[in-house]
Sequence to fold (487 residues):
Amino acid sequence: MGKPRGFLEIRRSKADQRPIGERLNDFREFELPVPDALLREQAARCMDCGIPFCHHGCPLGNLIPDWNDHVLSGRWEEASIALHATNNFPEVTGRVCPAPCEASCVLNLETIPDQGDGSGRVQPGAVTIKQIEHQIADRAFDDERIRPQRSPVRSGRKVAVVGSGPAGLAAAQQLGRKGHEVVVFEKDDRIGGLLRYGIPDFKLEKEVIDRRLDQLRAEGVSFRSRVHVGVDVTGDALKKQFDAIVLCGGAIVPRDLPVPGRELAGVHFAMEFLVQQNKRNAGDIVPEEGAILATGRKVVVLGGGDTGSDCVGTSLRQSAESVTSLELMPRPPDHRRDDNPWPQWPLIYRTSSSHEEGGQRDFGVMTKAVLGDDQGRVRALEVVRVELKGGKLVELPGSAHEIPCDLLLLAMGFVGSPRAGMLEQLGVEMDARGNVRTHEFATSVPGVFAAGDMSRGQSLVVWAIAEGRKAAERVDAWLSSTAARVA
Ligand SMILES: Cc1cc2nc3c(=O)[nH]c(=O)nc-3n(C[C@H](O)[C@H](O)[C@H](O)COP(=O)(O)OP(=O)(O)OC[C@H]3O[C@@H](n4cnc5c(N)ncnc54)[C@H](O)[C@@H]3O)c2cc1C
Ligand code: SF4
Fold:
Protein backbone atom coordinates (compact mmCIF):
# COMPACT_ATOMS: atom_id res chain seq x y z
CA MET A 1 0.00 0.00 0.00
CA GLY A 2 0.93 3.70 0.01
CA LYS A 3 2.39 5.35 3.05
CA PRO A 4 0.30 4.57 6.19
CA ARG A 5 -1.30 7.84 7.32
CA GLY A 6 0.26 9.56 4.29
CA PHE A 7 -3.09 11.13 3.52
CA LEU A 8 -3.07 12.77 6.96
CA GLU A 9 0.40 14.22 6.54
CA ILE A 10 0.54 15.22 2.89
CA ARG A 11 -1.79 17.70 1.25
CA ARG A 12 -3.17 17.28 -2.24
CA SER A 13 -1.03 19.30 -4.59
CA LYS A 14 -1.74 19.78 -8.27
CA ALA A 15 0.61 20.35 -11.18
CA ASP A 16 1.82 23.88 -11.91
CA GLN A 17 0.61 25.53 -15.09
CA ARG A 18 2.24 27.98 -17.45
CA PRO A 19 1.05 31.51 -16.56
CA ILE A 20 -2.13 32.54 -18.40
CA GLY A 21 -0.46 35.57 -20.02
CA GLU A 22 2.15 33.26 -21.54
CA ARG A 23 0.00 30.32 -22.59
CA LEU A 24 -2.57 32.48 -24.41
CA ASN A 25 0.17 33.28 -26.95
CA ASP A 26 0.31 29.74 -28.29
CA PHE A 27 -1.63 26.49 -28.57
CA ARG A 28 0.80 24.26 -26.69
CA GLU A 29 -0.16 22.30 -23.56
CA PHE A 30 0.17 24.34 -20.37
CA GLU A 31 0.28 21.81 -17.51
CA LEU A 32 3.83 21.31 -16.28
CA PRO A 33 5.06 17.89 -15.16
CA VAL A 34 5.26 17.34 -11.41
CA PRO A 35 8.83 16.52 -10.26
CA ASP A 36 9.29 12.81 -9.47
CA ALA A 37 9.74 13.28 -5.72
CA LEU A 38 6.53 15.29 -5.46
CA LEU A 39 4.59 12.81 -7.59
CA ARG A 40 5.72 9.95 -5.35
CA GLU A 41 4.62 11.96 -2.34
CA GLN A 42 1.19 12.44 -3.92
CA ALA A 43 0.97 8.71 -4.67
CA ALA A 44 1.74 8.12 -0.99
CA ARG A 45 -1.60 9.76 -0.13
CA CYS A 46 -3.44 6.68 -1.47
CA MET A 47 -4.74 5.23 1.78
CA ASP A 48 -5.40 1.59 0.80
CA CYS A 49 -9.01 2.12 1.74
CA GLY A 50 -9.96 -1.54 1.40
CA ILE A 51 -12.80 -0.99 -1.06
CA PRO A 52 -11.31 1.37 -3.65
CA PHE A 53 -14.30 3.20 -5.08
CA CYS A 54 -12.02 4.87 -7.64
CA HIS A 55 -12.08 1.55 -9.59
CA HIS A 56 -15.80 1.99 -10.05
CA GLY A 57 -15.60 5.72 -10.64
CA CYS A 58 -13.27 5.00 -13.56
CA PRO A 59 -15.22 3.52 -16.50
CA LEU A 60 -12.10 1.53 -17.40
CA GLY A 61 -11.79 0.02 -13.93
CA ASN A 62 -8.21 1.28 -13.78
CA LEU A 63 -6.17 -0.44 -11.04
CA ILE A 64 -5.45 2.84 -9.32
CA PRO A 65 -4.18 1.82 -5.83
CA ASP A 66 -1.82 -0.69 -7.52
CA TRP A 67 -0.12 1.90 -9.69
CA ASN A 68 -0.05 4.47 -6.90
CA ASP A 69 1.91 1.94 -4.85
CA HIS A 70 4.30 1.22 -7.74
CA VAL A 71 4.95 4.95 -8.20
CA LEU A 72 5.55 5.44 -4.49
CA SER A 73 8.18 2.69 -4.63
CA GLY A 74 9.70 3.95 -7.88
CA ARG A 75 8.64 0.81 -9.81
CA TRP A 76 7.83 2.65 -13.06
CA GLU A 77 7.85 -0.43 -15.29
CA GLU A 78 5.30 -2.20 -13.06
CA ALA A 79 3.25 1.00 -12.84
CA SER A 80 3.08 1.18 -16.63
CA ILE A 81 2.11 -2.51 -16.93
CA ALA A 82 -0.68 -2.10 -14.35
CA LEU A 83 -1.91 1.05 -16.07
CA HIS A 84 -1.92 -0.47 -19.56
CA ALA A 85 -3.68 -3.59 -18.31
CA THR A 86 -6.97 -1.68 -18.43
CA ASN A 87 -6.31 1.45 -20.52
CA ASN A 88 -4.95 1.59 -24.07
CA PHE A 89 -4.29 5.33 -24.06
CA PRO A 90 -3.52 6.56 -20.53
CA GLU A 91 -1.44 9.41 -21.96
CA VAL A 92 -4.73 10.75 -23.39
CA THR A 93 -7.01 10.19 -20.40
CA GLY A 94 -4.22 11.49 -18.15
CA ARG A 95 -4.59 14.77 -20.04
CA VAL A 96 -8.28 15.17 -20.87
CA CYS A 97 -10.32 12.93 -18.56
CA PRO A 98 -12.60 14.77 -16.10
CA ALA A 99 -11.44 12.10 -13.62
CA PRO A 100 -14.62 10.61 -12.17
CA CYS A 101 -12.17 8.37 -10.25
CA GLU A 102 -11.08 11.36 -8.19
CA ALA A 103 -14.69 12.29 -7.45
CA SER A 104 -15.22 8.82 -5.98
CA CYS A 105 -11.87 8.61 -4.12
CA VAL A 106 -12.50 7.78 -0.45
CA LEU A 107 -10.44 10.84 0.50
CA ASN A 108 -13.35 12.88 -0.86
CA LEU A 109 -15.84 11.25 1.50
CA GLU A 110 -15.35 13.16 4.71
CA THR A 111 -13.62 16.09 6.27
CA ILE A 112 -10.75 15.38 8.69
CA PRO A 113 -9.04 17.42 11.39
CA ASP A 114 -6.78 20.00 9.75
CA GLN A 115 -3.18 18.80 10.04
CA GLY A 116 -1.75 22.07 8.80
CA ASP A 117 -2.61 25.13 10.89
CA GLY A 118 -5.04 23.47 13.28
CA SER A 119 -7.79 25.86 12.31
CA GLY A 120 -10.50 23.24 12.01
CA ARG A 121 -11.52 20.43 9.70
CA VAL A 122 -10.57 20.18 6.05
CA GLN A 123 -11.59 18.15 3.04
CA PRO A 124 -8.35 16.26 2.32
CA GLY A 125 -9.08 16.08 -1.39
CA ALA A 126 -8.73 13.08 -3.68
CA VAL A 127 -5.45 11.50 -4.64
CA THR A 128 -4.22 13.25 -7.82
CA ILE A 129 -4.98 10.10 -9.82
CA LYS A 130 -5.17 11.75 -13.23
CA GLN A 131 -1.80 13.48 -12.85
CA ILE A 132 -0.13 10.27 -11.71
CA GLU A 133 -1.65 8.41 -14.67
CA HIS A 134 -0.44 11.12 -17.07
CA GLN A 135 3.12 10.89 -15.80
CA ILE A 136 3.32 7.09 -15.67
CA ALA A 137 2.25 7.05 -19.33
CA ASP A 138 4.57 9.83 -20.51
CA ARG A 139 7.48 8.32 -18.63
CA ALA A 140 6.80 4.94 -20.23
CA PHE A 141 7.16 6.58 -23.66
CA ASP A 142 10.28 8.51 -22.60
CA ASP A 143 11.86 5.30 -21.26
CA GLU A 144 10.89 3.45 -24.48
CA ARG A 145 8.71 1.00 -22.61
CA ILE A 146 5.84 1.37 -25.06
CA ARG A 147 6.71 -1.39 -27.47
CA PRO A 148 4.50 -3.18 -30.00
CA GLN A 149 2.68 -6.21 -28.61
CA ARG A 150 2.18 -8.22 -31.79
CA SER A 151 0.05 -11.30 -31.52
CA PRO A 152 2.14 -14.47 -32.10
CA VAL A 153 -0.83 -16.07 -33.89
CA ARG A 154 -2.88 -14.91 -36.88
CA SER A 155 -6.56 -15.85 -36.86
CA GLY A 156 -7.08 -15.39 -40.58
CA ARG A 157 -10.13 -13.20 -39.74
CA LYS A 158 -10.55 -9.65 -41.07
CA VAL A 159 -12.22 -6.87 -39.10
CA ALA A 160 -13.16 -3.40 -40.38
CA VAL A 161 -13.28 -0.61 -37.80
CA VAL A 162 -15.08 2.52 -39.01
CA GLY A 163 -13.87 5.68 -37.27
CA SER A 164 -10.47 6.38 -35.72
CA GLY A 165 -11.48 8.13 -32.49
CA PRO A 166 -10.61 6.62 -29.12
CA ALA A 167 -13.32 3.93 -29.40
CA GLY A 168 -12.14 2.79 -32.85
CA LEU A 169 -8.46 2.89 -31.89
CA ALA A 170 -9.01 0.92 -28.67
CA ALA A 171 -11.13 -1.69 -30.50
CA ALA A 172 -8.55 -1.93 -33.30
CA GLN A 173 -5.63 -2.38 -30.91
CA GLN A 174 -7.40 -5.04 -28.85
CA LEU A 175 -8.53 -6.98 -31.94
CA GLY A 176 -5.08 -6.76 -33.52
CA ARG A 177 -3.60 -8.23 -30.35
CA LYS A 178 -6.02 -11.15 -30.67
CA GLY A 179 -4.43 -11.96 -34.02
CA HIS A 180 -7.14 -10.56 -36.30
CA GLU A 181 -6.33 -8.49 -39.39
CA VAL A 182 -7.70 -5.02 -38.61
CA VAL A 183 -8.30 -2.15 -41.04
CA VAL A 184 -9.44 1.24 -39.64
CA PHE A 185 -11.39 3.44 -42.06
CA GLU A 186 -11.45 7.20 -41.40
CA LYS A 187 -13.19 9.83 -43.51
CA ASP A 188 -10.90 12.65 -42.32
CA ASP A 189 -7.40 13.23 -43.64
CA ARG A 190 -5.77 12.33 -40.32
CA ILE A 191 -6.34 9.59 -37.77
CA GLY A 192 -7.64 10.33 -34.26
CA GLY A 193 -11.32 11.38 -34.42
CA LEU A 194 -12.16 14.09 -31.91
CA LEU A 195 -8.76 13.63 -30.24
CA ARG A 196 -7.29 15.02 -33.46
CA TYR A 197 -9.88 17.49 -34.68
CA GLY A 198 -12.11 18.33 -31.70
CA ILE A 199 -9.97 18.66 -28.59
CA PRO A 200 -7.61 21.65 -28.94
CA ASP A 201 -3.85 21.24 -28.84
CA PHE A 202 -3.62 23.19 -25.57
CA LYS A 203 -5.37 20.22 -23.91
CA LEU A 204 -3.84 17.47 -26.05
CA GLU A 205 -0.86 18.02 -28.35
CA LYS A 206 -1.17 15.85 -31.40
CA GLU A 207 2.31 14.30 -31.12
CA VAL A 208 0.78 12.40 -28.21
CA ILE A 209 -1.59 10.65 -30.64
CA ASP A 210 1.08 10.10 -33.30
CA ARG A 211 3.49 8.25 -31.03
CA ARG A 212 0.70 5.87 -29.95
CA LEU A 213 -0.37 5.33 -33.58
CA ASP A 214 3.20 4.16 -34.31
CA GLN A 215 2.63 1.38 -31.78
CA LEU A 216 -0.69 0.35 -33.40
CA ARG A 217 0.89 0.30 -36.86
CA ALA A 218 3.81 -1.78 -35.60
CA GLU A 219 1.27 -4.22 -34.16
CA GLY A 220 -0.18 -4.64 -37.63
CA VAL A 221 -3.26 -2.37 -37.57
CA SER A 222 -3.80 -0.75 -41.02
CA PHE A 223 -5.25 2.75 -41.42
CA ARG A 224 -7.13 4.04 -44.43
CA SER A 225 -7.75 7.77 -44.01
CA ARG A 226 -9.87 9.87 -46.43
CA VAL A 227 -12.20 6.91 -46.92
CA HIS A 228 -15.78 7.79 -46.08
CA VAL A 229 -17.68 4.54 -45.57
CA GLY A 230 -21.09 4.90 -47.18
CA VAL A 231 -19.65 7.23 -49.83
CA ASP A 232 -16.22 6.02 -51.03
CA VAL A 233 -16.91 2.41 -50.11
CA THR A 234 -20.40 1.04 -49.51
CA GLY A 235 -21.62 -0.80 -46.46
CA ASP A 236 -22.26 -3.82 -48.72
CA ALA A 237 -18.69 -3.85 -50.00
CA LEU A 238 -17.44 -3.77 -46.42
CA LYS A 239 -19.69 -6.70 -45.48
CA LYS A 240 -18.26 -8.75 -48.36
CA GLN A 241 -14.63 -7.97 -47.56
CA PHE A 242 -14.65 -8.40 -43.79
CA ASP A 243 -15.68 -11.04 -41.26
CA ALA A 244 -16.87 -8.40 -38.78
CA ILE A 245 -17.42 -4.64 -38.71
CA VAL A 246 -17.13 -2.32 -35.68
CA LEU A 247 -18.86 1.04 -36.06
CA CYS A 248 -17.08 3.76 -34.07
CA GLY A 249 -18.12 6.79 -36.12
CA GLY A 250 -18.90 9.09 -33.18
CA ALA A 251 -21.97 11.28 -32.65
CA ILE A 252 -21.25 13.97 -35.16
CA VAL A 253 -24.60 15.70 -35.78
CA PRO A 254 -24.53 19.00 -33.85
CA ARG A 255 -27.63 20.38 -32.06
CA ASP A 256 -28.84 23.45 -33.95
CA LEU A 257 -30.38 26.71 -32.75
CA PRO A 258 -33.83 27.00 -34.36
CA VAL A 259 -34.39 30.75 -33.93
CA PRO A 260 -34.85 33.64 -36.37
CA GLY A 261 -31.50 34.88 -37.69
CA ARG A 262 -29.72 31.49 -37.47
CA GLU A 263 -28.80 31.85 -41.15
CA LEU A 264 -26.82 35.09 -40.65
CA ALA A 265 -23.11 35.24 -41.50
CA GLY A 266 -20.93 34.79 -38.43
CA VAL A 267 -23.04 31.99 -36.89
CA HIS A 268 -21.20 28.64 -36.86
CA PHE A 269 -21.21 25.27 -35.21
CA ALA A 270 -18.38 25.00 -32.69
CA MET A 271 -16.78 22.12 -34.55
CA GLU A 272 -16.38 24.16 -37.75
CA PHE A 273 -14.36 26.66 -35.71
CA LEU A 274 -12.33 24.18 -33.63
CA VAL A 275 -11.37 21.91 -36.53
CA GLN A 276 -9.94 24.87 -38.47
CA GLN A 277 -7.66 25.84 -35.58
CA ASN A 278 -6.51 22.26 -35.08
CA LYS A 279 -5.65 22.13 -38.79
CA ARG A 280 -3.68 25.40 -38.57
CA ASN A 281 -1.78 23.98 -35.60
CA ALA A 282 -0.97 20.93 -37.72
CA GLY A 283 0.57 23.22 -40.35
CA ASP A 284 -2.33 23.18 -42.83
CA ILE A 285 -3.37 26.34 -44.66
CA VAL A 286 -7.02 27.20 -44.00
CA PRO A 287 -8.11 29.34 -47.00
CA GLU A 288 -8.94 32.92 -45.98
CA GLU A 289 -12.30 32.65 -47.67
CA GLY A 290 -14.26 30.46 -45.28
CA ALA A 291 -11.86 30.98 -42.38
CA ILE A 292 -13.64 31.39 -39.03
CA LEU A 293 -11.53 33.50 -36.69
CA ALA A 294 -12.33 35.13 -33.37
CA THR A 295 -9.60 37.74 -33.75
CA GLY A 296 -10.97 41.17 -32.76
CA ARG A 297 -14.51 39.78 -32.51
CA LYS A 298 -17.13 39.87 -29.80
CA VAL A 299 -17.58 36.13 -29.45
CA VAL A 300 -20.60 34.49 -27.84
CA VAL A 301 -20.44 30.74 -27.16
CA LEU A 302 -23.76 28.97 -26.59
CA GLY A 303 -23.30 25.87 -24.44
CA GLY A 304 -21.17 25.34 -21.37
CA GLY A 305 -19.73 21.83 -21.82
CA ASP A 306 -16.28 20.73 -23.00
CA THR A 307 -16.95 21.94 -26.54
CA GLY A 308 -18.04 25.39 -25.36
CA SER A 309 -15.09 25.70 -23.03
CA ASP A 310 -12.70 24.72 -25.86
CA CYS A 311 -14.24 27.49 -27.99
CA VAL A 312 -13.50 29.96 -25.17
CA GLY A 313 -9.83 28.89 -24.89
CA THR A 314 -9.41 28.96 -28.68
CA SER A 315 -11.09 32.38 -29.04
CA LEU A 316 -8.90 33.85 -26.32
CA ARG A 317 -5.79 32.52 -28.07
CA GLN A 318 -7.01 34.08 -31.32
CA SER A 319 -7.23 37.47 -29.48
CA ALA A 320 -11.00 37.92 -29.44
CA GLU A 321 -12.19 41.36 -28.29
CA SER A 322 -14.52 39.66 -25.78
CA VAL A 323 -15.77 36.14 -25.07
CA THR A 324 -19.12 35.44 -23.42
CA SER A 325 -20.35 31.93 -22.61
CA LEU A 326 -24.08 31.48 -22.19
CA GLU A 327 -25.72 28.45 -20.63
CA LEU A 328 -29.44 27.79 -20.81
CA MET A 329 -29.64 25.93 -17.51
CA PRO A 330 -29.27 27.67 -14.14
CA ARG A 331 -25.85 27.91 -12.50
CA PRO A 332 -25.10 24.61 -10.70
CA PRO A 333 -24.53 24.71 -6.92
CA ASP A 334 -21.01 25.13 -5.48
CA HIS A 335 -21.36 21.99 -3.34
CA ARG A 336 -23.05 18.61 -3.75
CA ARG A 337 -26.75 18.52 -3.04
CA ASP A 338 -28.05 15.93 -0.57
CA ASP A 339 -29.54 13.90 -3.42
CA ASN A 340 -26.14 13.74 -5.16
CA PRO A 341 -23.95 12.07 -2.52
CA TRP A 342 -20.41 10.70 -2.74
CA PRO A 343 -19.26 8.57 -4.64
CA GLN A 344 -21.53 9.88 -7.41
CA TRP A 345 -20.16 12.37 -9.92
CA PRO A 346 -20.78 15.75 -8.25
CA LEU A 347 -23.20 17.95 -10.20
CA ILE A 348 -21.56 21.20 -9.16
CA TYR A 349 -20.31 24.43 -10.68
CA ARG A 350 -17.01 23.86 -12.47
CA THR A 351 -14.43 26.21 -13.88
CA SER A 352 -12.37 24.81 -16.75
CA SER A 353 -8.82 25.97 -17.48
CA SER A 354 -10.24 27.97 -20.42
CA HIS A 355 -12.75 29.71 -18.17
CA GLU A 356 -9.88 30.61 -15.84
CA GLU A 357 -8.12 32.24 -18.77
CA GLY A 358 -10.77 34.87 -19.37
CA GLY A 359 -14.20 35.75 -20.71
CA GLN A 360 -17.58 36.07 -19.00
CA ARG A 361 -20.04 33.31 -18.10
CA ASP A 362 -23.77 33.61 -17.60
CA PHE A 363 -26.40 31.01 -16.75
CA GLY A 364 -30.15 30.76 -17.21
CA VAL A 365 -30.07 32.66 -20.52
CA MET A 366 -32.25 31.65 -23.49
CA THR A 367 -31.56 32.95 -27.00
CA LYS A 368 -34.74 34.11 -28.73
CA ALA A 369 -33.23 35.49 -31.96
CA VAL A 370 -29.97 36.29 -33.71
CA LEU A 371 -29.98 39.93 -34.88
CA GLY A 372 -28.15 41.03 -38.02
CA ASP A 373 -26.69 44.21 -39.49
CA ASP A 374 -27.44 45.54 -42.98
CA GLN A 375 -24.64 43.35 -44.40
CA GLY A 376 -26.43 40.18 -43.26
CA ARG A 377 -23.92 39.53 -40.48
CA VAL A 378 -24.71 38.81 -36.82
CA ARG A 379 -24.48 41.94 -34.61
CA ALA A 380 -26.25 40.82 -31.38
CA LEU A 381 -28.31 38.15 -29.67
CA GLU A 382 -31.77 38.78 -28.32
CA VAL A 383 -32.03 36.84 -25.05
CA VAL A 384 -34.25 36.42 -21.99
CA ARG A 385 -33.50 35.14 -18.53
CA VAL A 386 -35.05 31.79 -17.56
CA GLU A 387 -35.55 29.90 -14.31
CA LEU A 388 -36.29 26.25 -13.56
CA LYS A 389 -39.77 25.95 -12.05
CA GLY A 390 -41.34 22.54 -11.55
CA GLY A 391 -38.75 21.00 -13.85
CA LYS A 392 -39.55 23.47 -16.67
CA LEU A 393 -37.67 26.52 -17.89
CA VAL A 394 -39.80 29.62 -17.41
CA GLU A 395 -39.00 33.04 -18.91
CA LEU A 396 -38.64 35.90 -16.44
CA PRO A 397 -40.92 38.79 -17.46
CA GLY A 398 -39.11 42.00 -18.36
CA SER A 399 -35.72 40.26 -18.67
CA ALA A 400 -35.33 40.55 -22.46
CA HIS A 401 -32.10 42.21 -23.54
CA GLU A 402 -29.49 42.22 -26.29
CA ILE A 403 -25.92 40.91 -26.09
CA PRO A 404 -23.48 42.34 -28.65
CA CYS A 405 -21.95 39.59 -30.78
CA ASP A 406 -20.23 39.34 -34.13
CA LEU A 407 -19.18 35.69 -33.93
CA LEU A 408 -21.68 33.19 -32.54
CA LEU A 409 -20.44 29.64 -31.85
CA LEU A 410 -23.03 26.92 -31.24
CA ALA A 411 -21.72 24.34 -28.76
CA MET A 412 -24.98 22.86 -27.53
CA GLY A 413 -24.10 19.21 -27.85
CA PHE A 414 -24.64 16.52 -30.47
CA VAL A 415 -27.76 14.62 -31.46
CA GLY A 416 -26.43 11.33 -32.81
CA SER A 417 -25.14 9.97 -36.09
CA PRO A 418 -26.48 10.53 -39.63
CA ARG A 419 -28.62 7.57 -40.71
CA ALA A 420 -28.17 8.31 -44.43
CA GLY A 421 -25.15 6.64 -45.99
CA MET A 422 -23.26 3.99 -44.06
CA LEU A 423 -25.84 3.18 -41.37
CA GLU A 424 -28.68 2.94 -43.88
CA GLN A 425 -26.60 0.80 -46.24
CA LEU A 426 -25.69 -1.57 -43.42
CA GLY A 427 -29.31 -1.68 -42.27
CA VAL A 428 -28.60 -1.21 -38.56
CA GLU A 429 -31.42 -0.09 -36.27
CA MET A 430 -31.23 3.28 -34.53
CA ASP A 431 -32.57 4.28 -31.13
CA ALA A 432 -34.88 7.22 -30.36
CA ARG A 433 -31.90 9.49 -29.63
CA GLY A 434 -30.36 9.02 -33.10
CA ASN A 435 -27.67 6.57 -31.98
CA VAL A 436 -27.00 3.05 -33.26
CA ARG A 437 -29.03 0.59 -31.17
CA THR A 438 -26.88 -2.10 -29.58
CA HIS A 439 -27.17 -4.99 -27.19
CA GLU A 440 -23.80 -5.73 -25.61
CA PHE A 441 -22.18 -3.89 -28.51
CA ALA A 442 -23.92 -6.02 -31.19
CA THR A 443 -26.16 -4.08 -33.58
CA SER A 444 -29.33 -5.50 -35.14
CA VAL A 445 -27.20 -6.87 -38.03
CA PRO A 446 -25.17 -10.03 -37.21
CA GLY A 447 -21.44 -9.37 -37.42
CA VAL A 448 -21.85 -5.60 -37.15
CA PHE A 449 -20.95 -4.07 -33.78
CA ALA A 450 -20.88 -0.49 -32.49
CA ALA A 451 -19.11 1.35 -29.66
CA GLY A 452 -18.29 4.80 -28.35
CA ASP A 453 -20.31 7.93 -29.07
CA MET A 454 -21.95 6.29 -32.12
CA SER A 455 -23.96 3.97 -29.87
CA ARG A 456 -23.67 5.65 -26.50
CA GLY A 457 -24.30 9.22 -27.62
CA GLN A 458 -21.96 12.10 -26.93
CA SER A 459 -19.77 11.14 -23.99
CA LEU A 460 -16.16 11.06 -22.84
CA VAL A 461 -12.85 9.71 -24.09
CA VAL A 462 -12.61 7.32 -21.13
CA TRP A 463 -16.00 5.82 -22.02
CA ALA A 464 -15.03 5.53 -25.69
CA ILE A 465 -11.87 3.59 -24.78
CA ALA A 466 -13.79 1.40 -22.31
CA GLU A 467 -16.47 0.60 -24.92
CA GLY A 468 -13.90 0.02 -27.68
CA ARG A 469 -12.21 -2.57 -25.47
CA LYS A 470 -15.45 -4.31 -24.51
CA ALA A 471 -16.71 -4.31 -28.10
CA ALA A 472 -13.43 -5.93 -29.17
CA GLU A 473 -14.02 -8.73 -26.66
CA ARG A 474 -17.51 -9.30 -28.08
CA VAL A 475 -16.22 -9.29 -31.66
CA ASP A 476 -13.46 -11.74 -30.79
CA ALA A 477 -15.93 -14.09 -29.11
CA TRP A 478 -18.25 -13.85 -32.10
CA LEU A 479 -15.42 -14.53 -34.57
CA SER A 480 -14.49 -17.60 -32.56
CA SER A 481 -18.04 -18.94 -32.85
CA THR A 482 -18.99 -21.08 -35.81
CA ALA A 483 -21.81 -18.70 -36.83
CA ALA A 484 -19.41 -15.91 -37.68
CA ARG A 485 -20.61 -14.40 -40.97
CA VAL A 486 -21.65 -10.80 -41.52
CA ALA A 487 -25.31 -10.89 -42.58
C1 LIG B 1 -14.74 19.88 -28.80
C2 LIG B 1 -14.81 18.66 -27.96
C3 LIG B 1 -14.02 18.59 -26.82
C4 LIG B 1 -14.07 17.46 -26.02
N1 LIG B 1 -13.28 17.42 -24.92
C5 LIG B 1 -13.28 16.30 -24.15
C6 LIG B 1 -12.44 16.22 -23.02
O1 LIG B 1 -11.74 17.17 -22.67
N2 LIG B 1 -12.45 15.06 -22.30
C7 LIG B 1 -13.22 13.99 -22.66
O2 LIG B 1 -13.16 12.95 -21.99
N3 LIG B 1 -14.04 14.05 -23.73
C8 LIG B 1 -14.08 15.18 -24.49
N4 LIG B 1 -14.91 15.24 -25.57
C9 LIG B 1 -15.71 14.05 -25.93
C10 LIG B 1 -14.82 12.99 -26.63
O3 LIG B 1 -13.96 13.61 -27.54
C11 LIG B 1 -15.69 11.96 -27.33
O4 LIG B 1 -16.60 11.40 -26.39
C12 LIG B 1 -14.84 10.83 -27.92
O5 LIG B 1 -13.88 11.33 -28.81
C13 LIG B 1 -15.74 9.82 -28.64
O6 LIG B 1 -14.92 8.87 -29.25
P1 LIG B 1 -15.42 8.00 -30.48
O7 LIG B 1 -14.27 7.16 -30.87
O8 LIG B 1 -16.69 7.33 -30.12
O9 LIG B 1 -15.78 9.03 -31.64
P2 LIG B 1 -14.99 10.23 -32.32
O10 LIG B 1 -13.84 10.67 -31.53
O11 LIG B 1 -16.04 11.24 -32.65
O12 LIG B 1 -14.42 9.60 -33.66
C14 LIG B 1 -15.29 9.17 -34.69
C15 LIG B 1 -14.54 9.17 -36.00
O13 LIG B 1 -15.29 8.45 -36.96
C16 LIG B 1 -15.15 9.08 -38.21
N5 LIG B 1 -16.28 8.67 -39.06
C17 LIG B 1 -17.60 8.90 -38.82
N6 LIG B 1 -18.35 8.33 -39.80
C18 LIG B 1 -17.47 7.75 -40.66
C19 LIG B 1 -17.65 7.04 -41.88
N7 LIG B 1 -18.87 6.79 -42.38
N8 LIG B 1 -16.55 6.62 -42.55
C20 LIG B 1 -15.29 6.84 -42.03
N9 LIG B 1 -15.09 7.52 -40.89
C21 LIG B 1 -16.16 7.96 -40.20
C22 LIG B 1 -15.16 10.55 -37.86
O14 LIG B 1 -14.58 11.34 -38.90
C23 LIG B 1 -14.33 10.56 -36.57
O15 LIG B 1 -12.96 10.74 -36.88
C24 LIG B 1 -14.92 16.37 -26.38
C25 LIG B 1 -15.72 16.45 -27.51
C26 LIG B 1 -15.68 17.58 -28.29
C27 LIG B 1 -16.55 17.68 -29.50
S1 SF4 C 1 -9.14 7.22 -17.08
FE1 SF4 C 1 -10.12 8.99 -16.07
S2 SF4 C 1 -11.46 8.06 -14.53
FE2 SF4 C 1 -10.00 6.46 -15.14
S3 SF4 C 1 -8.27 6.61 -13.70
FE3 SF4 C 1 -7.75 7.91 -15.46
S4 SF4 C 1 -8.45 9.96 -14.92
FE4 SF4 C 1 -9.47 8.53 -13.53
About this structure: Residues 96-97, 162-168, 185-188, 193-194, 198-199, 203, 228-230, 248-250, 252, 274, 306-307, 310, 422, 452-454, 459-462, 464 surround flavin-adenine dinucleotide (ligand 1) (CB under 6 Å). The chain has 19 helices and 16 strands. The chain has three domains: 6-142, 158-252+415-480, 267-410.
